[in-house]
Q: What sequence folds into this?
């Protein structure tokens, strides 16, 4: 329970905290050693690690195996990305959340979109809001303060009015019992400020090349910063370069320099 409390407190600080996005036990240990106060398991990165495309293509049991190893390998709070919940009804979603609670997760991240035939689509607001309300009721029944972070994919799915739809959904999710809001691809400083001002919930932004600086994000009122699968992609990009050097150039020095 103390890890959940520690995780919740990170969202209430004067400065934004940076979540260390990880994909296995070793990356989580490296993030903790570097000084991250909490780590977030990237569902996208785990899927790619296991040879799947992002979007609930792996079995939930496969995700659980990684989650269990990460939680047992670090002392900092761990938040888990569960995509859309790995279920389209609240009983199945809550069944999955209970398993994460029993493992010691400090928070979850659930998104209001699904991938169908390779395309990511927004779930209708009221339909997804029932999921949020159902999770909140379940956590209350369990006497759990697990941090419920809701990711809205208004920008990811290229909604025709992404800012307006984001604010509409943020207000609905706040009423339904969310603890935090995550809006990937939101990077314009004016729009970030408008979202922050629309809610009492802490806002999580996702790092992009055009994302405002840390000091700017602090001034805008952002409370949490994450990088998704970016470190994972960078790491494997480097690995790809090394493999190419070994097999093509037959040069070995780069492997040890």
A:
């Amino acid at each position: 329970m103390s890890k959940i409390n520690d995780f919740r407190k990170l969202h209430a600080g004067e400065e934004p905290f940076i979540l260390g996005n990880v994909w296995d036990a070793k990356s989580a240990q490296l993030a903790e050693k570097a000084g991250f106060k909490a780590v977030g398991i990237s569902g996208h990165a785990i899927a790619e690690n296991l040879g799947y495309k992002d979007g609930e293509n792996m079995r939930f049991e496969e995700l659980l195996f990684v989650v269990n190893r990460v939680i047992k390998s670090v002392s900092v709070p761990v938040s888990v990305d569960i995509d859309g919940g790995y279920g389209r009804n609240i009983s199945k979603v809550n069944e999955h959340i209970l398993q994460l609670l029993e493992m010691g997760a400090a928070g979850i991240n659930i998104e209001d979109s699904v991938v169908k035939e390779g395309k990511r689509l927004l779930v209708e607001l009221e339909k997804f809001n029932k999921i949020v309300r159902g999770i909140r009721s379940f956590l209350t029944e369990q006497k759990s303060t697990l941090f419920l972070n809701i990711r809205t994919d208004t920008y990811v799915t290229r909604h025709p009015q992404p800012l307006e739809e984001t604010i509409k959904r943020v207000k609905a999710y706040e009423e339904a019992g969310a603890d935090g809001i995550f809006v990937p691809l939101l990077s314009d400083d004016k729009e970030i400020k408008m979202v922050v001002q629309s809610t009492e919930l802490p806002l999580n932004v996702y790092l992009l090349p055009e994302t405002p600086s840390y000091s700017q994000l602090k001034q805008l009122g952002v409370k949490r910063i994450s990088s998704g699968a970016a470190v994972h992609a960078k790491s494997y990009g480097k690995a790809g370069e090394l493999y190419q050097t070994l097999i093509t150039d037959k040069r070995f020095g780069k492997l040890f320099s």
Observations:
- The radius of gyration is 18 Å.
- The chain has ten helices and eleven strands.
- Residues 2-229 form a domain with the TIM Barrel fold (CATH 3.20.20.60).
